[in-house]
Every structure is written in C-alpha cells, then in structure tokens.
Write a structure and sequence with these properties.
Enzyme class: transferase
Structural class: alpha+beta
InterPro entries: ATPase_NBD, Carb_kinase_FGGY, Carb_kinase_FGGY_CS, FGGY_C, FGGY_Carb_Kinase, FGGY_N
EC number: 2.7.1.-
Helix content: 25-40%
Largest sheet: 7 strands, mixed
Protein name: FGGY-family carbohydrate kinase
Distance between the termini: 62 Å
Radius of gyration: 22 Å
CATH topology of the largest domain: Nucleotidyltransferase, domain 5
Strand order of the largest sheet: 18-19-17-16-22-23-24
Family: Belongs to the FGGY kinase family.
Number of strands: 24
CATH superfamily of the largest domain: ATPase, nucleotide binding domain
CATH architecture of the largest domain: 2-Layer Sandwich
Strand content: 15-25%
Shape: globular
Length: about 500
Amino acid sequence: MPRNAVIGVDIGTSSSKGVLVGLDGTLIRSAVREHTPARPGPGRFEMDAAVWWREFTELSRELTAAGDAIVVAVGVSGMGPCVLLTDEHDTPLRPAILYGVDTRSVRQIERIEARLGAEEILRRGGSALTTQAAGPKITWIAEEEPGLYARARRLYMPSSWLVARLTGAYVLDHHSASQCTPLYDTHTHGWYAPWAAEVAPGIDLPPLRWSGEAAGTVTAEAARETGLPVGIPVTTGTIDAWAEALSVGAQHTGDLMLMYGTTMFLVHTVPKALTSPSLWSTIGALPGTRNLAAGMATSGAVTNWLRDLFADGDHAELTRLAAESGPGAGGLLMLPYFAGERTPVMDPDARGVIAGLTLSHTRGDLYRAALEATGFGVRHNIEVIEAAGGDIRRVVAVGGGTQGSLWTQIVSDITGRPQELRTVTIGACYGGSLLAAQLVGDARIDDWNPVRTTVTPRAGHTGRYDELYALYRRLYPATSDLVHTLAALQDR
C-alpha cells in the first residue's frame, strides 16, 4: 500500500538534490543531478534556469517511479541570492547570475553606495553592500546589457523559479528578499520602493511570503511534466543554507549552523537585529527570526580542485592520507580564497595562497591543509560573529562534508567548539521536505531527525592550532597587495 510522502528539492551550486520523505521523516529515497555553472569570464558564475527545471522534473520522476508513495506536498530551496530576470511572460532573458561567487558588480556597488550611503544601506538593509547582494547584480545587467534589461519585468531565484513552474505563482520568501540588498527593508519586512526604483528600475518585485507558507498548488501542466499529483501544495521555499539549518533544527536563539558544502556557510540565530560590515544580517526563514550569517566562497570547492588535480585521487583516499599527515599538514598553511572571499574579509580580489611548500610535501599534506584552512576560516567568522554581539550556544553541522569524521573533527579542534550531528545530514532538500510536511501535518524536526553524535574538540591539538591560526590571520594582510596585483592580471 503506497504511503503518503513529501518531496524536497534543492538546486545547489554543483548539483540538484531531491528526497522523497515519509510524513514521519523517514528518508525513502534520494536522487542527485550534477551540473557545473558556466564561467563566462573572470569572477563570473552563471547558470541557465532551464537546467533547474529540467533537473527538478528528472528528480521528481526518479523519486516517484517505484510507485510506493503518494506525494502530498512539495518543498523547494536553492542557492542564492541569485538574479534571474525574465520578461512579463516569464521567459528568461539571460542565464542567472549566481550569488557571492560571482564578483562582477564591484563598480556598481561603489556607485550605489555613493548615491544611497553605505551607513544607511547597512542600517536599513542589515548588511553592507557586497558582491553577495542581488541588488548590484541587477544594476550590472541594466548598465552592461541595456537592450536586454529594457525587456526585464520579473526577478527570480532558483527556489522561486521552481515555484513559478510548479504553481504559476510569482512570489519570493522574506529571507531571500533580505539578501537583495538594498531593495528590502529589514525593519518593515517589505520592499523599499525608493531604492528599488533606483537600483532595479522597471522590475515588478514579487509579493513576499514566509518560507513555510504555501505559494500555490501544482498545476495540470506541471503535473504532466513532473509526474506529481495535480493540486498538491508547494512551499514558498528559501535559500539553501536556511533550509539546511531547518533540516537539523538549528533555528533557535544561540544556534549556529555550519554547512559543509561546495562553500562553507554559517547561520547564527539571534534574538534581535545585529549588524556588522563584515557579516550579513538577514531575516530568518521562519516568522519572527533573525540571523547573522557568514559565508566562505570556497571549502569543498578546494578539496574538489585538489581531487581533480590528482588524477588518481578520490576523496576517501585523500582523506586517509590527510589523516596520516597530522595537525599542521607538515608545516603547510593555506588561505582558501580561491574564488575571492566573502565574510569576513569581503574581498572579491582575494586569491588562494599555499605557504610553506617544499619538495617533500605530499598529496595528503595539501589535502589536510585545505581542510584546516576551512577550520581557520570558520574560526575567523565565529570571532567576528561574537564581536558583533552574537551568542553562540550550540553548533550544528550539516552537508556532504560531514559524512567523514576527519573534516568535522579538524574544525572542532581548531575552533574549540563541539558540533552536533543529526541522523540525516543530506541538507537543504530534507529541510524543504520538512516545510512541505508542515503544510499537511504536524512535523517536528526533533522527531524527524534526532541527534546522532557530537564531535568534541581534542585538547591535545589546541596549542598547535592556536599557533597556526595566528599565522593564518597574518597571511592575508601579508599577501593581499601581491594577490590583488595578480588578480588584476587574471582579469586581462
């Protein structure tokens, strides 16, 4: 007898993931479609929205092919903030510009700050204007592709694009909107019309809802393409990291989520609005919640790069070699700024640095240095979060990088923070399925996804990592002038 279930789908940077989940939280089936963003120039990352919908339909059909479940609701999430502009008929006008890994809008940021005022943007929008923000990316299209922009009427992100294709609704969640700096007012929880007209002229910004609210129901056309039942509800959805936090119950005041993925993302839940020019202050996924957020531009992206460089390597083998390398990676120190860096340095022209190389260093040393670089970056962000008034009481880890024990152990050793691991760590698509289940029932994450284990720091490594962290903090200022010159050469 088929059981009732929900589907959760997340559109990520390197793959789309989907899960079929019973209403009790049981993971029935999962599926993945890998993809690679286009890189049309230095500092530019784009993706065709047709990929998002095609992969959703493929995942939906694969997840339901066995006929052992009746899907009663759908949850969606996706990377962001991204900028997909369409005309009034929802025809995409160009590939979507991705989130902070795309750094093309530096000049637009400078001009917008000059017109609106950097302090006023921080006060009203909660975050300083950086290449993470959606607003300057819209302005970039208006200035660099004016003929195309003249036809632009609507703004989408991956999650809201799936909602539109599934239900016909044009909506966006409050959290995603709060990353559209400077278009959203975090005090009034709505679009700020004067700045919207300045930064995104002619765009009919979407109505706003909370992530767990129903955006609409599956249309007959979408049902034919996806195999889903007509009329089932679809969540409004949100950005992937916030769905990840929901998937492991990290939405209470004092919680900090660490998302181990292609990038490393940190979401700290705070009781009131806190701002820092080195972080992002956002509206939460749930009503009444606020966050201080941080994000490293790379983490798993660097380990994937190393795996690809070592043609005969794979992550399992490289992890084994990294464990043998030991704390300190044989005297190597890495800056993980291979795609610029987001928080807390906010430097799109930062570049990766590997210091201390000798002819005796091995693949395991390099891989270990990459894992440790992530840990140092997390520690740096945690210190800035707490300096801004954050009060971190619990750390919860999630994402593909938690599957092996070494990476999470290294991060706990470097930060001195225990990390809670839940039973299911698949991430955003599971969080999306939780919100979908809450549309049709009383799903609770502690029942769905109980704590499996806690990674505790090893005291014997504290001194070594404290010494290396001090060197890590010196390495960026010591090399920034040089790498900025190199970054300029790369742009030619």
